[in-house]
Amino acid sequence: SQVHAYLLLADNSVFVKQKERYMEAIDAYQKYIQLFPKGKDRMQAENAYNSAQKALDKIKKETKKNNIQSK
After folding, report:
1. Pick from 4, 11, 16, 35: CA 20 to 30 A from residue 56's CA?
2. Whole-prediction pTM value?
3. How confident is the model at residue 71 (pLDDT cuts 50, 70, 90)?
C-alpha cells in the first residue's frame, strides 16, 4: 500500500527528512481509511501507521532530549 511505501521511505531516509516522511505516511493512512474504510489492505495500512506513529514519537523525544542537552 501507499502507506507502507511512505513508511519504508521514511525508515531509509536521513534523520533530518524522517519526521516529514513519517508524517506523510500518517497522512496517507488517514486518506486511505477515508476512501476505503473496509479496504482489503486496511490491516497492513494500520500496521504501517502504528509504526510511523512510534517512529515519530521517538524522533520527537530524541529532538527534545538533544535540545535540552544543548542548552
Report:
1. 35
2. 0.86
3. very low
